Amino acid sequence: MTVAYWCVLIAAVIPLVAIGIAKAGGERYNNRHPRVWLDKQQGYRARAAAAESNSFEAFPLFAAAVIIAHLTNAPQGRLDLLAIVFVVARIVYVVCYLVDWHWARSLVWTISFVTCVVIFLSGVAPG
Known about the structure:
Layout: H1 3-23, H2 34-39, H3 43-71, H4 76-98, H5 102-121
């Protein structure tokens, strides 16, 4: 398993951590109707739920980019480094969401998106 593949697994877990933060210790959390309960949350809980949704939205492009980069024989060192950059950016993204640093969050989102595009193109760019 490459580092990049491990990063795909880590990226898949990030949304679960975010939603865990939203739900942890919440008053009268209702697991029968979690979305209704989450829709009523405010503050960091609401932002954690939004971070979860965005993390799930970012995941398919990242996973596809890593797989395509492997299939097109992208240089492994470059791919591993870029995958780590993506994962770190997504973790920072969740933190920025939690503490309501919206400008930093947008910057980190852009970094993670551009990283996915670069990963995707890594197999066609010269080493």
